[in-house]
Amino acid sequence: MDKSTTIQELIDLVKNFCEQRDWDQFHSPKELAIGISTEANELLQIFRFKSVEEMKTLMDGPKRSCVEEELADVLYFVLRFAQMNNIDLSAAIKEKIKKNDAKYPVEQVKGSNKKYDEYL
Q1: To 10 degrees, the CA torsion angle through 31, 36, 38, 43?
Q2: Residue spans per domain, the chain
Q3: Using CA atoms, how far apart are residues 1 and 13, in angstroms rounded to an integer?
Q4: pLDDT tens digit sequence for 73-94
Q5: How much is the pLDDT for 1?
Q6: Cβ burial, residue 78 (10 Å; 0-12/13-18/19+)
Q7: Phi-psi category of 75—alpha, beta or left, where left has phi over 0 and alpha has psi -120 to 50?
Q8: What pLDDT sits at residue 120?
Q9: Which of 16, 28, 35, 25 lies closest to 78, judged by CA?
Q10: How far, CA to CA in Å, does 64 sit from each of 16, 45, 69, 73, 97?
Q11: Are 11 and 52 in contact (CB under 8 A)?
């Protein structure tokens, strides 16, 4: 469960899975980055050419499991990348949010999807 499972527990789960299969040798930063991109694109493929209504139906129907699997694959590679390269994901996301907070002040961007260089 998301509310009770820590990021470290997920990292350890992926690490143990990979180590049992002797996959460390295949998990260089490049290969893991390719995995992240590949799985993200497989997630994107599910939504390609779908209308808003079709996406809603997809997310509320039996095909939702395909979305969940692809999203899990993306997270798997992110967790593995962090573990193999000693990246503290909690610290990284907190730092990124801090930077984005400066780039996207609430009073200037609330309700807007413009990139930071479009509203300055």
Answers
A1: 170
A2: 1-87, 89-120
A3: 14
A4: 999 999 999 999 999 999 999 9
A5: 85
A6: buried
A7: alpha
A8: 65
A9: 35
A10: 27, 13, 9, 14, 29
A11: no
Task: Tell me what pLDDT residue 116 has.
Answer: 85
Cα-based angle 103, 107, 113 (whole degrees, multiple of 5): 60
Q: What one-character DSSP code corresponds to residue 101?
A: H
Q: What is the pTM of this model?
A: 0.91
Give me the residues of the chain with pLDDT under 50, please.
none
pLDDT value, residue 117 = 86
Provide the 10 A C-beta neighbour count for residue 86: 6
Residues 6+ apart with CB under 8 A from 43: 67, 70, 71, 73, 74
CATH code for the part of the protein at 1-87: 1.10.287.1080
